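Quick review question:
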């Protein structure tokens, strides 16, 4: 049995536990391209207790990265500061910058006659963006994730928007419609909005500096000596043993 020290942030106090082989196989069997869905499924199984915010789908994407990395730090043969490519876990974690409760909705300015605010990107929102891949004609790769992030996080003053946990269908419909609307903005308005969005995202920074890649969410190096390192990913399957991954491999590919 592996020992996991409690994980504490301003918003969360989490006790993780080791997955059973059956749970690991269930995660390993999920489609590889559904990283956010796999992350939610993994954390829901690995979290034994959570105070503050119970459901990992409601955690911010940075808090979810922290949960994955805390599991890796406790199970890695290298110890807590495990290798991440040519860097280390500490090259990406900005532990001194925790979430602020006052930052649930931050004003970022006026664009196109509307006053805009930004909110944190949660796991449920990221899963929606993931599910909607290919739904907006002409939008793919990094642009899909960037436009999806804007659609999920940006809220106009006085606007009522659905919650990502109220129902996947309703939220997905709202987000894909908003993505299409934003893609139809005049270029000058869109340029102003994306500038405000990126500045607002910096105001919400905590734990990891996130960015969007062709395939989803990545963590950028935190700077200093780590500045030259590439973006890093922390997918749930990296927490699984080789045995669990081999057990769900295609016929003839098992290493057992």
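Suggested answer, residue by residue:
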């Amino acid at each position: 049995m592996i020992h996991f020290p409690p994980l504490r942030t301003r918003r969360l106090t989490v006790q993780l536990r080791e997955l059973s082989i059956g749970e690991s196989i269930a995660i390993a069997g999920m489609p590889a391209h559904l990283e956010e869905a796999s992350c939610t499924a993994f954390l829901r199984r690995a979290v034994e207790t959570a105070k503050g915010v119970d459901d990992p789908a409601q955690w911010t994407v940075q808090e979810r990265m922290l949960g994955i990395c805390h599991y890796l730090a406790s199970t890695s043969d290298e110890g807590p500061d495990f290798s991440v490519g040519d860097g280390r876990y500490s090259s990406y974690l900005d532990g001194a910058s925790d979430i602020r409760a006052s930052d649930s909705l931050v004003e970022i300015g006026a664009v196109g006659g509307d006053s805009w605010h930004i909110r944190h990107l949660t796991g449920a929102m990221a899963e929606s963006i993931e599910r909607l891949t290919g739904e907006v004609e002409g939008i793919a790769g990094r642009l899909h994730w960037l436009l999806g992030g804007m659609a999920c996080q940006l809220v106009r003053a006085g606007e009522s928007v659905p919650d990502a946990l109220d129902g996947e269908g309703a939220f997905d419909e709202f987000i894909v419609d908003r993505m299409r609307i934003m893609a139809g903005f005049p270029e000058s308005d869109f340029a102003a909005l994306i500038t405000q969005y990126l500045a607002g995202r910096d105001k919400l920074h905590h734990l990891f500096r996130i960015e969007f890649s062709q395939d989803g969410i990545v963590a950028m190096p935190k700077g200093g000596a780590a500045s030259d390192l590439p973006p890093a990913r922390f997918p749930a399957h990296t927490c699984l043993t080789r045995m669990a991954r081999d057990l769900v491999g295609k016929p003839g590919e098992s290493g057992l």
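Why it works: The helical segments are 21-28, 35-46, 61-75, 123-131, 141-153, 168-183, 187-203, 242-247. Residues 150 and 198 are 9 Å apart (CA to CA).
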